[in-house]
Amino acid sequence: MRKLTYFIACSIDGFIGDPSGDAQAMYPFVDEEFLAFLKEEYPETISTPGRRAMGLDHLPNRKYDTVVQGRVSYDIAMEMGVTSPYAHMREYVASRTLGESPDPNVTVVSEDLLGTVRALKAEEGNGLGIYLCGGSALAGELIDEIDELVIKTYPIVLGSGMPMFGSGFAVAEFSLGEVRTFKNGAVVRTYDRKR
Ligand SMILES: NC(=O)c1ccc[n+]([C@@H]2O[C@H](COP(=O)([O-])OP(=O)(O)OC[C@H]3O[C@@H](n4cnc5c(N)ncnc54)[C@H](OP(=O)(O)O)[C@@H]3O)[C@@H](O)[C@H]2O)c1
User: Which residue ranges does the record assign to the Bacterial bifunctional deaminase-reductase C-terminal domain (predicted)?
Assistant: First the structure.
């Protein structure tokens, strides 16, 4: 079995972006110390263009070898002409409208998203898990399958915005694991799902 981990950046009040989903207000907190943490522990969560720009293409995957993202999140890369934003992993993009995959490394999941994710989770473990990249709608669809949360909270309040989960109300309990704090006020918390 492999774990499905929602690894996500959010504000103190739990939003992953402004009301349209734009997360640029969080970018300044990825400073030298925070980037060093990402490079050391989660290098695969840095996108391919980011890795190339910073000369990090050689860094091995530490936690995940597969990424799942929603079409709206994928569009951000597509708009920059990038068809494989996480080329160092297997990429799955959920979409009923995208049609044929624009890239050989990207599998478009148009039907049975839940079944596809369950099949990925059921694969034999190799120590690496599945990175649920977002956004809100996709995380809401997959909320019951999430085994772990890694929440990067930046010290900003947005007041309103895109919630971490686009789902209905239901209480799901998690137990707190590692907590990491940074000089700039960012906090990274890891939670395991209580089943
Ligand atoms: N703060 C962060 O760390 C972070 C991380 C990631 C994303 N974001 C933000 O999140 C925003 C996007 O989130 P979002 O909620 O609008 O969209 P999203 O979750 O990225 O994508 C939603 C799309 O996924 C597809 N989809 C969802 N459920 C599906 C299913 N069961 N089967 C097949 N396809 C399915 C649909 O695509 P079709 O319409 O093509 O059918 C749907 O429109 C972006 O603005 C981005 O900036 C923030």
Answer: 2-187
